[in-house]
Model the fold of this input.
Amino acid sequence: MHIRASIAWTLAGAIVLLIGAMIFSAIRDSRSQQQQLQSLLSVQQQSIQAASQRQQGRDAQLASALATISQLKKRTQTPAQIIRELPQDLPLIPSQIQMSLPEATPLNPTPDAIARIPQSDLKPLFDSLQDCKAGALQLNTCLADRKDDGAKIQALTSERDAAVAASKQGSVWKRTKIALKWAAVGILIGYFAHR
Done:
């Protein structure tokens, strides 16, 4: 009887030590995982902040350029003003495009403007117009991609927040509960096997 009691106490002590080791391991693993997560989040946060600052700088430059263009559009209204401003916005070509506005007559109070383009400038002008079309298509694609990237970022942010919350919501206790449950199962099996 005395031997059985000492075996039971030895078994109980071993179980307590096993539970203690499991709890210690769970706490150590949890802390290690939290430190790794915090380190990763810190690095990612710095990257996000730098990207946000660059984006804000580009947005400010774009807003300034768009404001200048808008002011030019408002101030340039008449055909004479347009003929004066248009050569500045045409692509750089070897020769100057000659534009003129014929005098208004009673028969033609709003005559069409006349532009003379040297043949040597036709190809560069055509290429520039095609580049503008390509740029517009690329812009539309980039805007759509930006919208999709925003949705992806929102989803990844939600996942990150969930991971942070999961790491802070007592993963040690969850592991401890699992360890205690298995220890209880082991004790019960040992008790019934001993009988």
The chain is about 80% helix and 5% strand.
